Amino acid sequence: MVGDRRAQAGAVAGHLDAQRAAGRSVEVWLGDGTRRSLRVVAVLATGTGSNGVHVTGRNAGGAPTDHLELSWRPGTDTAAAEAAVRAALAPSGARVRTGDDWIADQRPTGSRQTLAGYLVVLGIALIYTGIAVATTMVMATSDRVGETAVLRLVGATRRQVVLFVVAETLAVVAAGAILGLLVTLLNLLGLWAALAALSAPAVVVVPWPVLAGTSLACAVIAALTAGATTVSALRRRPRTGRRPACGGT
């Protein structure tokens, strides 16, 4: 924070170099071009957006106040305090909002065209992902025709072979989903630690319904593809691998 030498209260500068410690002077140019020497009274920790320089109202050149941030002391009757603030600010036409309401208003929103573009790109990606899962299961199951034939030769019915392949496929999908979740949580933990180090701690929110729906869709595609490929392979007559004996001459 930078403040006038003659002022008791100063302003804050969060983006000053290490030499601009509290108590030192810094040369600044105000909005009207006036050059002044102000005293640094505090330095803010660097956040995610890099803090700008704040000055007192005396050095703001008549800039109006855009917002006030209020917090309550422990034990304060918040309902009564909020009502008093609203009554005091009512003549000025100022809006009183909670922190969550203010964040919701400041959150950037895209146009309908942008949202439609995102949905198109996401839809194409999901379709190709489903195709990739299906083709992978077709190739993996086709390579195991010999194993399914052995199961048929030892007495397993077609239904038992298909159920076995489908169960094994679902186990592979579950293992992949768990590993993917662990990797995602590890990345989120790294981001959370980095933001906390920048004095901007964040709450990790995992969209469990979306993850569950995606995993379920992959499981259905993989199971149907593996099952259909196995049924197609079982239509062929299993071979024992024996060669007919040749009579001697």
TrEMBL record:
Keyword field: Cell membrane, Membrane, Transmembrane, Transmembrane helix
TM ranges: 115-141, 161-182, 189-208, 214-234
Membrane topology note: Multi-pass membrane protein
Subcellular localization: Cell membrane
Matches recorded under InterPro entries: ABC3_permease_C (IPR003838), Macrolide_Exporter_MacB (IPR050250)
Residues annotated as domain ABC3 transporter permease C-terminal: 120-235
Similarity comment: Belongs to the ABC-4 integral membrane protein family.
The protein's name: ABC transporter permease
Record organism: Paractinoplanes aksuensis
